[in-house]
Each structure stands twice: as C-alpha cells, then as structure tokens.
Amino acid sequence: MNERAGTPILNVRSVSKTFGGVVRALDDVSLEVYPNEIVGVVGENGAGKTTLMKILVGVYPPDQGEWAYRGVKVPFPKNPKEAARKGISIVYQEKGVVPSLRVHQFLFLGNEDRYVGRTGLQTDRIKAHAREILKELHVQCDVDDFMHELPLSTQKMVEIAKAILSVRVEQDDENTQSVIILDEPTAPLTIEERKELLDEISGMKENTSFIFVTHIMQEVMECMDRVVVLRDGKLVGHYDMATDQVTEEDLTRVIVGKEILEHQPGAVSATARNAGVVLEAEGLAKKGSYYDISFELHRGECLGLFGPAGSGKSELIRTLAGLDGFDRGTLSIMGKEAKNREPAHIRLSRGVGYFSGDTGNELLHDWSIAKNISILNIAKVIGKIFRIIRFNAEKRMAERIVERLRIRAPNVSTPVSALSGGSKQKVTVGKWFERSPQILLLEDPTIGIDVGSRQDIFATILDMKGRGISMILVSDDSREYSTLCDSIVLMRQGKVQEIISAERLKEVVEA
Amino acid sequence: MNGPAKQKSSFKNAVQAVKNYPVVLIFLGLLAIFSVLYSQQFLSPINLTATLRQFVTLMLFALGPSIVMVLGSMDLSFIGIWMLGSILLWLLSPIIGPVALLVIPILGVATGFIVGVIHTKGRIPSFILTLSLLITYWGLTVVLAGGYPRSIPGYGFITARLVPRVPTPFFLSIPIVLVAVFISLRTRLGVYFSAIGSNEEGARLAGIDVDKYKILAFTISGAFTGVGSVILFKHLGGSAAVEFNLNNVVRPLVAIILGGTPLVGGSGGPHRTILGVLTFAVLYRGLHLSPLRPELIDLVVGLVLIVSIILSSRGTRMRGVDVT
User: Fold this and answer.
1) Does residue B15 lie in a domain region?
2) For chain B, where are the E strands, in sequence order?
C-alpha cells in the first residue's frame, strides 16, 4: 500500500456488513481518502460497492468498523446530513436532478435555511451565492437556467456542486475539504460528454476529493489516482496508478477473479456462409434514416451493423424488429416476405426476437425472475392436456437460467427490481436464451454493466450462436462487435459502405 | 407436492401469507371487534345469513372487474349489464320462456367485447368508457321498463333453499368464483393479464398481443358479470330495477381494492377479491348493527376506500414481490 502525504479526510477501517444474517455484503473493508485525489472503486455488480457507499453516507449502519475524520475517531453517520458534517456527500447515478427547478433553486434545495428573511426566501442572495459556487467550480451554466435545459454532463456538474455545497453548509465552512462520492457519473452520457465531465472532475481536485464508482476501465486508467477493487464483499486489490504498473487487463482479471473470455472472430463465419439465408434485406429505405440497405443474414451468423450515431443503424434494427416501418425495399424473413411494421408477437411467430439493453422496457420489474423468464416461454411451462401453468417447471427453467448466467439472487422468486443492473440484463438474455428464436436482434446487450456480467452474457450469446441462432447486433461499444460478430456492415449517414469480416473491424475503428 | 417440507414450515408460511395478504388481519380484527361489541346480534344466525347474502352480492359484482383491474384497466359496466340484462329478461321471458336467462350472459359477453375493442382500438381510457356505457345502459333500462321497476315472475329455483340459513346463491357462486380464480392463477391468460398490468411495453416486447388480451379480459369480465347477474337478479329481489344506486358500483370496487388488487394492476385478481369481499361484508354488517346512522355508514365506507387505496399503492411501491 502506498502512503500519501497528510492526514486522510476520510479513513474507515475494517467495515463489515451482513444482510439478513446470511448475505455477507462487506467483509473487513478499509478505505481512506486523502485531500486532492480521486479514488476509483471498481468491482462486479453485487461486489459490495453500493453497500459501502451507503454506509459512508449513513443510509446503512455497519455491523462493525471504525471511522476517523481527519485523524479523529468519530461514530458512523446515521443519515446523509451527519455524513455531510463528516465531510462526505454523494451524487447518485440517476434521478438526483429535479428537472423543473432552476439551477439556483436546485443547488440550495433543502439548504435554504440561511436565506429565509422576513419576506420569504431571499432569492437575490441565493443567486449570488450560487453564481459564486458555479464560478469556483467552472460549471458552465446560468443560475436562472432550468435544470432540464442543461446538457446531461452539466447537470452532473451542478449535482456535484450541490453535494459540495451541502458539506459546506453542514460544516458552516466555506473552505472545507469535502469527499464526494460519484456513483457511475458517466453512465448516461455520450462519449463526448463523458470526456468533458471527466476533465471537469479532474480539474476540481484542488478543493475536493472524489470516490469514483465506475464500470468503465478506461475512466480508471485515465483519471484515477488510486483504485480499490472489491469482489464478493472483500477488498481484493489496491493500486496506485502513478507508481503501480497496472493494465486494463490486470484490473479486469482482479475484478472478475478468473480468466476472461477470448473470442476468435471468423471461426464460425466459414460454416455460416454455406448455411441458408434466414433474413434478407433488399433496397430497404426509410426517409431521413437509411437508404438502399441490402444484406443477407445466414444461419448461425452474427452480423453487426456498425457506424457512428446518426448512421441509421438503430433505426434499421428497429425496422427489422417491426417496431419502425420502412418506405421502400423488401424484407424477407425465413424466406417469406415480411410486412412493413409488425407487432412483436407476429415477428416472434416468424422467428424474430428483439431486445435492447434498456432493461426499463424489457422486464416486468415487480415480477420474480422466474415469471420474467416464463412470460416469454409460457408454452414450455403449460401442461399438455389441461393447459395449466406448472409452477415446478417454471421454477426449474428459471433455476437453469440463474445457474447458467450466474445471476446473483437468493432464489428465483426474487423480484427483478431487487437485482443489480448486470443481473437484470442477465435475466433478459436468459429468457431469450430459453426461447431461442431463429433470429435474435440485439441492441446494446451489455450496455452499462460490469465486466463479469458482460463475460457471462457474451458466453451465453456465443452459445446461442453456436447452436445455429442467427443474430444482428447494434451497439455503441466496439468490443461487443469484436467479441460477438462474424461480419460487419459498415454504415455511414444511412448508407452501407462496405460489408467486412470481423477481423478487419479493428483496422476500421483505428482508422 | 413436497408434503413434509411444507408441514415443517407451515408457521412460516402462515406468517408469509399474512404479510402478503394484510387484509386477513383486518378481517380477523373486525371479526373480533364486532363479536365482542355486539356478540348477541353479530353471531346470530340471522346476521350470519345476511352477511353471506352480502358476500354473494358483492362477490358476483366484483368478480369480472377484478380481472380487468389486474391489467390496470377499469370495468364499471357491471351494474349496467345487471340492470339492462334483468329488464331484457323481463321482456323476453313471456315470449321464449326460461331460455331467456341466457340473454344476460350474452349481453355481458357482447358488452365486454365491445368495450375491449373500443378501449384498445380507439385508445379510450376504460374508466370513462365503461362509465358512459353504464349510464347508457341505465337509460336504456328505464326506457324499456317504462319508468317502473318490473317484477320478473318465476325462476324461484335460483334462490330455493337447499340448506337452512345458507342462501342457495352462495353455493351457486362457488364454482363461478373458482373458475375465475383458476383462470387468473393457473392459465396463460392470467399470466398475460398481470404481465400487461405490470409493464405493458415489456409484455409487448415479450411477444404478447396486448390488444387481443385486453379485449379478452373485458370479454371475460363481461361473461362473469353476465353469469353472476343471472343469479343476482333473483338474489336481489327478483325484479328489474330502474333506479341507479351508486353504492352498487362503489362497494364492489372498495372490496376489490381492499382485497389488495392495486388500481395500476400487475398483481392481485379474483382470489384476493374473495378476501376483500369477505372483509367488506363483515365490516358492513357490523356497522349495520352499530348505532351508526346509514349515512354515517356511507362515510365509513368512503374512508375505508381512501385508506385501502393508499395502502394498496404503498404496497406496490414498497413490496412489489407478490406476483400471483
């Protein structure tokens, strides 16, 4: 472990937390944060990151552990306000913003006490103070802007400003050093916004330290000073990025705790070429989205539609799924011409399944894992004669999926809403695995989830492919293409540029 | 299925059941309170018979709507089907004899189907749609009846006593209720209904023809109301009413929500409604014995509705575990 100068602002030792007497969420984890640094916290979903953060801001009490604030031993906070008094505050991943408020109103939301005069809120003083803070932190917006008008990255910055402000208000000290927890701050952002936000955060280090929870290895490599790795509630790695020589692969291996899956692209493509065509697009066009699209999808082949945002790839896959229509051309599925725009149940009867990494639409959140899987596979759990749902069959089917995809859940009747993001996505993939349509359309199948879950999902998708299921992939992540695809349709501004083999993708991406 | 394991954890199961069905506690509580306060009257055979009568009425009215509510939709047309069906029976009985009884279920199925089609294809909210249909049916009833309630002779077999003190409609309603519970718990229909209520978009993406199952739900609701009304017209006096009684609409809804089917759908259904109806019947009979004036009873019913709506929406937000 590397020693840093000065006293840590935050120093928690040997924190343990058990839920319901069984699940050991955190086991003897220690963490210290010094002034002016960014500490990355990485780990699979369910590794204990969220539990640790919630203990730090006083949402959960720990079973045991010690807390030192600037070298002085203090009790653990019991609520976020007490945590702020100990210099720590959190910016949650989502839903932290009140879109209908103006920036200054949002900044001081819940901290207006100091600005109440005899005639109500002293808006001028609030605005003046808000302007000061925004200037200090280089946030590019006006205090009178509405939150929803701001770009997502600026909204995040305002949230960070609000977190810093809450520490200052609690401690009644304008110059205090605070520790701000950022829970996957870049998750909803585009690549450009991501860079911008990371730059801004790095620039704020002189007055603030950050605990940065993320799944994105690139962020760890680029802007963390130190990184700690959690796995199964234990601290399994601690690296100083300046002195320790760690690569992205090393980190991934420590996070997952096993070797990572390597894919040999093109291995299947030779056989795929000879198998029959399952889907054929000819001259498909949709005004304003894509033009003159023609390609063939063979049995057992995975075809990637690759291109920058605005290339028409998302619109095209939605058209193939029947969700959007096209203006011209023909689309034939399993040798039969498919109609323009079809409800999902008709596409499914043609053998076409579709899912997107956006789990909000795909899952029934208050339902159990078992029900979410059986909803797509109801024919498999219904009795032959009396058409009765056999709960045992349903349970066994779900247990198979849970085991295969390593879904972390107490049992299959756990509601999906209680699962982590990665496990939710695994449930979606699992139900399609069980269904095994002839053609599966995938959109961002592993977006926003941890590396371990990614590996499990990749393995399952490759397994489906091996069994002769054809796929079309659209993604924002070039690694998904290189892991899953056999050939790639390069798209730009709505047109097919070239159809290449997956091996050549790397050259194209680098070019 | 696994006998010994089940027995061992029977206490745990009971605790879990109460957790999932908090209305059981309310039911037992009310039962205890009224038994102590009005021990003489409350447990008297007359009152128990009256409670059963109340149970049958509410149950048969609430059955269909409780299936629709699982989808997150609302079916208020049941009173309309009952009123219009009764008057059609009065019109047709002298002409075609007892076969005329079939007219009520046919009306129910047709109504449900039409409501379903308009609701899905016209994208019209089911609440306002079925409310306007209810008013229309009422108006039609009054016109057909010539403005007076009409007594329908015959059909005494529906209410002919089989067992002393137990109203026969109670026995008749048992198989009907069981069929509804079976549909909602053990068939593809039931699963799809609550899937649609839970996340309509998700259900659509899972390849469920949402419109078709919505229409089916309304049709089934209409069918249950129709079959129920065959019993109810006799059970409620054997005549075709022309007066619209808001209580008939509200009380079954209170019972459904009290039973734990949330207004937004996604869970619950007829099996929960049984408990809700039972609880409401006990509450109502107990209040009836109390010195409260009738209008105060209505006030209490209103409060119960408010509280159970709050509880049910809280439950779906916080728990959201129970799927059946």
Assistant:
1) no
2) 150-151, 239-240
User: Are A371 and B323 inside 8 Å of each other by CB?
Assistant: yes
Subunit contact A361:B187, Cβ cutoff 8 A? no
pLDDT one-digit tens code per residue, A159-200: 899 889 888 888 888 778 889 999 888 877 777 788 888 888
The reply to whether residue A345 touches residue B209, judged by beta carbons under 8 angstroms, is yes
Whether residue A196 is found in the same domain as residue A82: yes
Q: Is the ipTM above a cut-off of 0.85?
A: no
A382 touches chain B (CB under 8 A): yes
* CATH number for the domain that contains residue A337: 3.40.50.300
Average pLDDT over residues B228-253: 91
Query: What's this model's pTM, rounded to 2 decimal places?
Result: 0.71
Interface of A with B in 411-440 (CB under 8 A): 413, 415, 417, 431
Tell me if A12 is assigned to some domain. Answer: no
Contact A389 B201 (CB under 8 A): no
Candidates B302, B156, B312; CA nearest to B234 is B156
Same domain, A26 and A133: yes
Q: Percent of chain B at pLDDT above 90? A: 53
Total count of domains within chain B: 1
Looking at the fold, whether A153 and A234 belong to one and the same domain comes out as yes
Quick one: which of A470, A499, A507, A482 has its CA closest to A265?
Answer: A482
DSSP structural state of residue B153:
-
- Tell me, yes or no, whether A234 and A270 share the same domain: no
> Using one digit for the tens of pLDDT, what is the confidence trace for B20-42?
777 888 888 888 888 888 888 88
CA atoms of A209 and A212, how far apart (whole Å): 10
Q: Which of B19, B178, B185, B199 to mutate to test the interface with A (most CBs of A within 10 A)?
A: B199
CA distance to A291, B89, B244, B270, B283, per residue, from B301 (Å): 63, 32, 18, 21, 9
Taking residues B226-252, what's their average pLDDT?
Answer: 91
**From chain B, which residues contact A within 8 Å (Cβ)?**
1, 186-188, 190-192, 195, 198-199, 201-209, 266-267, 316, 320-321, 323
State the residue for tokens 């699209």: A293
pLDDT of B6 reads: 46
Q: Is the Cβ of A118 closer than 8 Å to some Cβ of chain B?
A: no
* Amino acid making up residue B315: G
Each residue of B258-270: pLDDT tens digit? 898 888 888 889 9
pLDDT at B5: 45
Cα separation, A339 vs A368, in Å, equals: 35
